[in-house]
Design a protein that fits this description.
four-stranded antiparallel beta sheet; two-stranded antiparallel ribbon; alpha+beta
Length: 265
């Protein structure tokens, strides 16, 4: 894939242990990790086990104020792209597998159409993390864990029925699994350059690290957060309806505060 990924020559030892926004001493997390990788005898198999556990968590949009808090990770039973990336990084590092978040800017209007159509009304940048893990001597990247399998299956079917290549937060040719031997993506496809990230923002330890060090404006106004919280119910109702196949995805029409440049997923 031709999109530019920076930092591929980074020393993997720089991406181990606790760091800004990464706390490997959080109570209960190490025990959770041990249970997930029990019986796995290689780094690849441990990475696969972690991936499948995180993927199985239902995709639910969480309040932006605590979606990536390390203290809340051991008790998570669902999550969004932020939360799931945080879990991937923490669990992989607990297994001594170097891991980090790669943040990219995506084209929001086409990626979210049919689900959260209010984003087409705003120019707010759509930044989102993926996870990179150092395996087999190189950085492997994936975001396939973001959608649980029932949601991914339902979204793919909707895309096929509508004749769309992209929408509902995924690409119709997005991967369904990750074998920890190659890159695998859900939200864009190697065969469709139009779906590739608009820009690569680089690699960070966490969401908190991204907010501090990213070379992008990521402030969030009080009004933006208020509107975001009001949208949560509508966003998640649309996701539930899509996952269960009860109705076609709905549209949330209230545009967010366009004076803010807070990242959205």
């Amino acid at each position: 894939m031709a999109w530019n990924r920076t930092g591929l020559e980074d020393d993997p030892s720089d991406w181990l242990g606790s760091a800004p926004g990464v706390d490997l001493q959080v109570s209960g997390l190490r025990e959770r990790c041990a249970a997930i990788v029990n019986g796995c005898h290689s780094a690849q198999h441990r990475a696969q086990a972690i991936f499948r556990w995180v993927q199985a968590l239902p995709f639910v949009v969480l309040d932006a104020k605590d979606r990536s808090d390390p203290l809340l990770l051991p008790g998570r039973t669902c999550g969004d792209a932020y939360t799931k990336a945080a879990l991937m990084v923490h669990l992989l590092r607990l297994c001594e597998i170097p891991a980090r978040m790669r943040w990219v800017q995506m084209e929001a209007a086409s990626l979210t159409r049919g689900l959260w159509d209010f984003l087409k009304h705003t120019d707010v940048p759509f930044y989102s993390p993926m996870t990179e893990a150092w395996l087999e001597g190189r950085w492997m990247c994936t975001d396939v864990y973001v959608f649980d399998r029932p949601l991914a299956k339902a979204a793919r079917q909707q895309l096929l029925e509508r004749g769309w290549s992209s929408g509902l937060l995924m690409h119709v040719e997005g991967e369904a699994d990750w074998d920890a031997l190659r890159d695998a993506y859900l939200r864009f496809a190697s065969t469709d350059p139009a779906s590739w990230p608009i820009s690569d923002q680089g690699c960070f330890h966490s969401h908190a690290d991204f907010l501090v060090r990213a070379d992008v404006p990521v402030r969030e106004s009080a009004l933006t957060h208020m509107v975001y919280v009001r949208q949560l119910r509508l966003m998640n109702e649309a996701l539930t309806a899509l996952r269960e196949g009860r109705t076609k995805p709905g549209q949330t029409d209230m545009p967010p505060d366009t004076s803010s440049t807070a990242p959205l997923t």
